[in-house]
Structures are given as structure tokens and as C-alpha cells.
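batch_manifest entry 22 of 60
target: MI domain-containing protein
source organism: Gossypium aridum
requested by: lab member K.T.
priority: normal
notes from requester: please return C-alpha cells only, no post-processing; we will run our own comparison against the previous entry in this batch. if the run fails, retry once and flag.
--- input ---
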Amino acid sequence: MVKGFARLAESLDDLALDIPSAKTLFQSIVPKAISQGWLDASFMKSSCTDGEAQNEDKKLDQYKKEIVTIIHEYFLSDDIPELIRSLEDLGLPEYNPIFLKKLITLAMDRKNREKEMASVLLSALHIEIFSTEDIANGFVMLLESAEDTALDILDASNELALFLARAVIDDVLVPLNLEEITSKLPQNCSGSETVRMARSLITARHAGERLLRCWGGGTGWAVEDAKDKIMKLLEEYESGGVVAEACQCIRDLGMPFFNHEVVKKALVMAMEKKNDRMLDLLQVCFNEGLITINQMTKGFTRVKDGLDDLALDFPNAKDKFSFYTEYAQKKGWLLPSFGSSAAEALPTAAAS
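--- output ---
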């Protein structure tokens, strides 16, 4: 119903040439449809007035043009931090699902290299600026238009199933999200079959390894791999390693958008080993511009969110965390506002 009404709303200008009262009639039908329960009330918000709708269409068209350029540049440069900066500069997080749809549609029309890059990018975006809901809604949009996509890309259904399955393997989605995605699709939609295919791929033997190499023998990329490397470099430093070597290992990871994981693991290890030497490492990382104040804030926020669980293993976790927070603020690598109500939205604010 929403899709049908939306298509009609888009063609009102043309209809008005033959039916002068088309816009007035349409605006009288919408409230009746909503009141009788067969059109979602959100439709009224999305089509408040003709002027607003036209402005929104222009804004969306401009956004689509800009993200196509951003995605093409990414396929050439393989520079994830630069792409994330470009998206943050656009400042339109409500369009995140549209970005995902465009990314995967463009990747499906290219070679395996770009498909792998798209999957890698999804993981990074989920860690950095996309919510799970953004990702799920993007896949819903893809699956809703799968039949149209198949006109241009013959193997679209199989490719989409691989992207979905890979997203689960990379911890971008969880299996429960696949059920939520299915529930949002129209009944008897071909997209539902694609989701079933993705489930089969995930439950097959050795699914993880196979899906990490689904785009033709690449090494794949998983968040777990990065976490393991971070843990090893921190353990080596904690047991007497040199700070310069630890910093070089962080650089060699080549994933600055994931440095909040370094901060989180360093703070937890400091609590576990009762070794505040970890704070020295974070201080040097900040001084050298290796870890930004935004990444520091994200790392501290993640530890703060898990303090109740940490306190089960380390009874003085909350006291320790308060000490680390004060120390970091005193040294200048955590903003004084951290911990106040205004700081809850800090990672996003600092990023933009």
C-alpha cells in the first residue's frame, strides 16, 4: 500500500495535466486510508506538503549523486577512513540505509574485488557510524527491489544472499536480524527466498571460512581477526614490551577507525592485570596522533557501558574506571564533559 501510494505521489505533477484536481483528491484520500488502517500513518509525515516533498526529493537526489562519487572513489582508493569522513561531512545519517543499498548495488555490477571491498566496508561502517537498524533497513530496501535489480544483474538473488550471509559472519548482523528483515518484506516477495538462501549458507559446514572467501579466494576480513591482533600486541606490551613497538603494531593494523577497540582492551587489561602501564601507552598513542580523542571517547564509552559485567570479575572496576577517566581528562586525551549527560552522544558529535 505504502509503495503504491508513494509511486502515485511521485507522478502527481504529470497526473495533474490530465486531472487538474489530482493533488487535492490525492490529499483527501490519504487521511481516509490511514484512518481505516490500510495505510501506515508514517506516510502522512513523509508527504506532509508538496513543497516539503519536493525539497526532500531534491535533497535525496543530491545525496545519491554524492554517494555514487564517494563509492567510486572508495573502489579506486580502498581508503575506508576517507570514505567515513566523506559520509560524516554529508551529515545525513537518516539516509544510511540508502547508502548501503547503493554500495551493494554498485558492487554487484562489478568484479569480486569490489564485492569484497563492499563487505569489508560494511563491517567498518557498522563499527564506526552505522547502527544495526541502518544495515537491516538497507538490506530490506535491497530485497524489496531485488526483482528490478535482477533485470540488470542476472545473479542478483545469489549475490544478495552472499552479502547477507557474509554480514552475519562478520558480526554486522546476527541471525535474529534475518527474521526481522523477512518480517518487513511483502508476502511472497522474492526477497524472502534470498533470506532463506542466506540462512542455508550460514548453517552449512565450515560456513565461516567459505563465506570469508566467497568473492574468489581472498583472505576475507573479520572483526575477530583484528581483535586477536590487538589483544596480542597489548599482552606483549603489558609483559614488558616497548611502547614504540606497540605503537608500530597499531599502525600496521591499518584500521584507524577501529582504534577504540585498542582503548577498550587496554583499559580492561589494566583492570585485570592491575597494571596502569597501559595508560602510558594510550598517552603516547594520543601524543603521536595515533588515537584521536573521538576514538578515545568511544573506547571509554564502551568500557563504561559494560562496567556492571566487568564488576563481576573485578569488584573495584568502577573505582578503577573513575580513576582512568580522571587521569585521561587531566592529561587532555578525554574531554572534561565525558561522563556527563551531554557526553553520551559525544562519539557522533566529535566525529562530525
